[in-house]
Write a structure and sequence with these properties.
The chain is built from seven helices and 19 strands. The strands form two sheets. The protein has a 17-stranded mixed β-sheet that branches. Strands 3-4 form a two-stranded antiparallel ribbon.
């Protein structure tokens, strides 16, 4: 990925920011108009409707095949009016200032000229590189640009199924899922770039530790570094409670060693693998249902699908991009999936759900994210309160649709004393958190 050193020689203001503001406003108005325009599929659902397995046909054309299958297995939806999602003002200003200088590299794999904000605010659906651009938009989405620390959240594994009793199989609780961006920073110094990037080439730091439960995994954790170099793989280190030592993990490691949890480090928040390792294609744009204004914090356990999802929860019609990704076998030969199909919200620039297909082309897994849009992650927050609304993830689930085995994550956990959960762009973590030393020190 050529986000490297040439970018910062191009760090200059846009000569026509006000023109860009007007263009963005026009595009957003057009998206909103398309969203509210009637179509045969959308006309079947109205605010106030409750979608269940009994009337799932109403939503069939408004969700992905994987989400539809989960409705037939007991997940329900409460349809609410659509609403406008605004970007945080610092992010919007960075987009206005820098986006005009961003382009894809000659091989269409990486970015050139990126500084901060959304790389590509205008997407031409006829552009053959539109899918690649959309995935870079997701990488540098407005949800969190500088750092975040999601504290004390839980994931519970269970078998899905219509009216299946809720019987948790495995319970996992985690101390931190944290991230630090060295590029694209908009709210916390150093901005827009951490000087460390110029020497280390590190683009992103991830810390996922310590595991708090179950007891046999207590203390387990991972640290990952991602680099701007498109040919340099991620560096990942893991701490194991068995041998009580840190070991370096290969590029093929996908974070699946968390026992019965079906997550991997590449699945967090929709898609977290390296963009350059995939070929991307825009399949289309469509008004579809997504849960971006969830009502519950902590999220509720669905009583009608074995606890495999959050329901009933609020869903609304959103303008969505549908993007297909296929692994480059020369880069990730160990990739188990034949293809990924992402469903990205056109305003939030985030993946709302994803269908995973196996190498035979059959639907295998489904991922859903439940989001909230407000000025604090939880209503009774005392610290993490923001001067503007932003999008928070409050729940996420991945379901193996062939085995009927799901993991539902709650952010925050339902029984934690850490109520605020999300600390975004507050300097809650710095680079010292993402070290092997800190990983080992956190283990009990």
């Amino acid at each position: 990925m050529r986000i490297g050193y040439p970018i910062y020689r191009m760090n200059r203001p846009n000569d026509a920011p006000h023109t860009l503001v007007r263009l963005i406003a026009i595009v957003m108005l057009a998206l909103l108009t398309q969203l509210t325009a009637p179509n045969s599929a959308a006309a079947q659902v109205r605010p106030g409707d409750i979608i269940t397995d009994r009337n799932a046909y109403k939503a069939r054309e408004l969700v992905s095949p994987g989400v539809y299958l989960r409705i037939t297995r007991g997940m329900s939806m409460q349809i609410v009016p659509s609403e406008r999602i605004e970007w945080p003002p610092p992010y919007r200003e960075a987009t206005e200032k820098y986006s005009s200088q961003v382009r894809l590299s000659n091989d269409h794999r990486s970015l050139v000229g990126y500084v901060a904000g959304l790389p590509f605010p205008f997407i031409d659906p006829n552009d053959p590189t539109a899918g690649t651009k959309l995935m870079w938009n997701d990488t540098f989405r407005p949800t969190s640009t500088d750092d975040y620390d999601a504290r004390d959240f839980s994931c519970i594994s269970e078998y899905d199924g219509l009216n299946r009793p809720y019987v948790p199989i495995n319970y996992y609780e985690f101390g931190h899922l944290a991230s630090y961006n060295l590029v694209g920073r908009t709210e916390v110094e150093p901005m827009p770039t951490d000087p460390d990037f110029l020497t280390s080439g590190r683009l992103l730091l991830i810390g996922f530790y310590p595991f708090l439960a179950p007891q046999e995994d207590r203390g387990r954790g991972f640290v990952r570094y991602r680099y701007a170099d498109p040919l340099k793989g991620d560096d990942t280190w893991g701490w194991s409670p068995g041998n009580r030592r840190v070991r370096r993990l290969g590029e093929a490691f996908l974070g699946s060693s968390a026992g019965a949890i079906t997550w991997s480090l590449d699945n967090f928040q929709g898609f977290a693998a390296k963009n350059e390792n995939y070929n991307w294609r825009l399949l289309g744009e469509k008004s579809m249902l997504a849960s971006i204004a969830a009502a519950h914090v902590p999220e509720v356990t669905c009583p009608t699908d074995g606890g495999a999802s959050a329901c009933p929860e609020r869903w609304q019609l959103r303008r969505m991009y549908i993007v297909e990704g296929q692994a480059r076998r020369d880069r990730v030969p160990e990739e188990l999936f034949g293809r990924h199909v992402m469903y990205l919200d056109a305003e939030a620039e985030s993946i709302m759900y994803q269908d995973f297909y196996n190498r035979a082309g059959e639907l295998w897994k489904n991922y859903i994210s439940w989001m909230a849009y407000r000025d604090r992650a939880v209503p009774d927050a005392r610290i993490a309160i923001y001067p503007f609304k932003r999008v928070f993830q409050v729940g996420a689930s991945i379901d193996d649709l062939t085995a009927g085995f799901a993991s539902m994550c709650y952010l925050p956990a339902q029984d934690t004393t850490e109520r605020e959960s999300w600390y975004i762009n507050m300097g809650a973590v710095d680079k010292s958190f993402f070290t092997v030393k800190a990983l080992a020190a956190a283990a009990p």
